[in-house]
Structures are given as structure tokens and as C-alpha cells.
Design goal:
Length: about 160
């Protein structure tokens, strides 16, 4: 990943970003500095909040990065997986129904979701819902496509 541009966000753009994350995830991201880093050859652009990669734009939609979701745990849009799914999800695998123990019922098809492990609640990945939240728990089928996970290029990228 290569940086194509980097600039500080204006106060109205920061307000829009904060409002969007509050509406979708129930989080209030605070910081003194918000800097947009546009990247080449990747579907992401990132926002550094006080120098940390806390927000990514995925298809022009703001969402927390794995680091951001662990620093500001979302109240909505969370899917919890069991211990058996942790190693797969952490390595970028899509999420299958049998590994899910709980999902926010308000998740709609196409929503970005935070995927957390059940023991400590740590977020392992960010994905795109392929089915509604109230239909995620079950015995078979892929329900979340992995978008960003612990150890991927975005996670290890340093500015």
C-alpha cells in the first residue's frame, strides 16, 4: 500500500465522520487531530485519529478499523464468534454460521460489521454482512465476507 495523499480533515468533515460512526455503531470517537490518508492499490482510505489508524473508508463508507473497534468498542453492528472460529477469522476467512454465537439483530445485508471473539470481546476482523443479523446464527452457510482482519496489510500498515 502506498500513500497517494495525506491531509487534515476540516471540522465539518470530522463532524460528519463522528456522526456517521455514532449512528451506525454507537461510538463517539474523540481526538485532537483527524488526518485522511488516501492509499493506492487498495479499497481503503484511512483516517488517523491522533496518529492512530482508527477509521477506514470501505467503499466510501466510514467504519472502524480493527484497532479502532478495540479502542472504541461498538455498541451496534457486532457479530460474536466462538473460540473455534477465532484462528480462521484472524487469518481473514469469511465467517460461517456455525461459528457465530451472537449477532446484532439490526444488521442488514450489506452492512459492515465488527467481528469479535466471545471470551474477551476483542474485535478480530471487519466484514460485510451477506445476510441479516437475525439470520446469522445457524448450522451452515457463509454469512460474512471478511474485509479487514488482524495481521492484514491494513492492520500492519504504518504511516
Amino acid at each position: 500500500m502506498h500513500v497517494s495523499s495525506r491531509h487534515h480533515l476540516r471540522s465539518d468533515a470530522i463532524s460528519d465522520l463522528q456522526a456517521s460512526l455514532a449512528d451506525s455503531l454507537g461510538v463517539d470517537i474523540e481526538g485532537d487531530s483527524f488526518e485522511l490518508v488516501e492509499l493506492d492499490d487498495t479499497p481503503f482510505d484511512i483516517v488517523l485519529v491522533d496518529g492512530d489508524k482508527l477509521v477506514a473508508y470501505v467503499d466510501d463508507e466510514p467504519f472502524l478499523t480493527v484497532e479502532g473497534a478495540n479502542e472504541f468498542p461498538p455498541a451496534r453492528g457486532v457479530v460474536t464468534v466462538d473460540a473455534g472460529a477465532v484462528s480462521f477469522v484472524s487469518n481473514g476467512a469469511d465467517v460461517m454460521r456455525p461459528g457465530i454465537v451472537e449477532a446484532d439483530a439490526d444488521i442488514a445485508v450489506g452492512d459492515l460489521v465488527a467481528i469479535a471473539e466471545e471470551t474477551h470481546g476483542k474485535v478480530l476482523a471487519i466484514g460485510r454482512a451477506l445476510t441479516a443479523g437475525d439470520d446469522m446464527v445457524g448450522s451452515s452457510g457463509k454469512v460474512i465476507e471478511s474485509v479487514h482482519y488482524v495481521g492484514d496489510d491494513l492492520y500492519t500498515f504504518s504511516v
